[in-house]
Amino acid sequence: MNRLIPGITLALLLSACGQDRAPQTAQKTAEAPPPATVAMSSGLLLENMDTNVRPGDDFNAFVNGGWMATAEIPADRASNSVGLEVHERATENVRVIIAESAEGDFAEGTDEQKVGDLYKSYMDMETRNQLGAKPLEAEFETIATIGDQDDLAVFFAEANKVGINMPFQVGQYADFADPNTYMIYAAQGGLGLPDREYYFEEGDKAEGIRTAYVAHIEKMFELAGLPDGTAAAQTIMALETRLANDHMLKEDARDMVAIYNPVPLADLPGLMPEFAWDDFLQ
Q1: Fewer Cβ neighbours under 10 Å: the N or C end of the chain?
Q2: Cα dist. 235→30, 119, 229 in Å?
Q3: Which whole number is the average pLDDT over 168-195?
Q4: How far apart are CA 197 and CA 30, in angstroms?
Q5: What is the C-alpha separation between 170 and 163, in angstroms, rounded?
């Protein structure tokens, strides 16, 4: 997961193992040469400062005043920052690397060949349109074979590994209370709209979003060649609304103390007795 999900509702402790293991090193046969002397220079961009401002009066202006006086907000942005400029520059550098990989002639199995082929396949809209939803047929078949809750638990585990949205996600992270160990954490999920408020907020705008979302689901069924898109869209919306009703409020999900609830693996069946935890974790 590319962010720390605030809605963590369950933490499954996993003891860190192998902390005392040190990498084995070969016996030294010769003294290593001394490291080369590197001239150190300041990382501060003095031109971004405004030294005419007393730091005690306005430290932000003292440090950033020069940049703030000259920086422009891009036309497609609501704000700007040095961090955004660094991000944009890094993104452009990555784009150049990808383009060079796609345009060059690299040996089979090299990183450049893999990156280039992946990019070219992604940009080949003609072939993608011809294939349609055919590459998903194996996934549809897997879903069609789910016969009971045990099968569903196994499917959830496979879906979790590839980042498919489901009622809860499970991942590994440093223990919030002890950074020297790891924990397995579970976070609320399963919603197609951004958060629970989208399902219950009143007013024309909120109702319009929900109506458009149902129409979007129905259209996706049509494009994928799946049957009964209209009925399925209503079912999906009803299910997500039930899930959203049990989601934590955003402000509650930000309380990192309240959402830290370690549970031993053996106690999981007590929380969800009808869920096949053994199959899921296996």
Answers
A1: C
A2: 71, 36, 10
A3: 93
A4: 66
A5: 10
Instruction: Give alpha helix (H) positions in the chain.
Output: 59-70, 82-103, 111-123, 125-131, 137-144, 149-161, 197-200, 204-224, 229-245, 250-253, 268-271, 277-281
d(CA 173, CA 183): 6
Q: What is the pTM of this model?
A: 0.66
Mean pLDDT of 8-24: 42
Q: Taking Cα atoms as reference points, which of 241, 243, 259, 54 lies closest to residue 167?
A: 243
CB 236 within 8 A of CB 217: yes
CA atoms within 13 A on the CB side of 12: 16
Query: How far apart, in whole angstroms, are the C-alpha atoms of residue 85 and residue 162?
Result: 31
| CB contact at 8 A, 148 and 276 | no
pLDDT at 250 over 50: yes
Backbone angles phi and psi of 104, in degrees to 5 = -90, 175
Closest CA to 262 of 15, 13, 14: 13
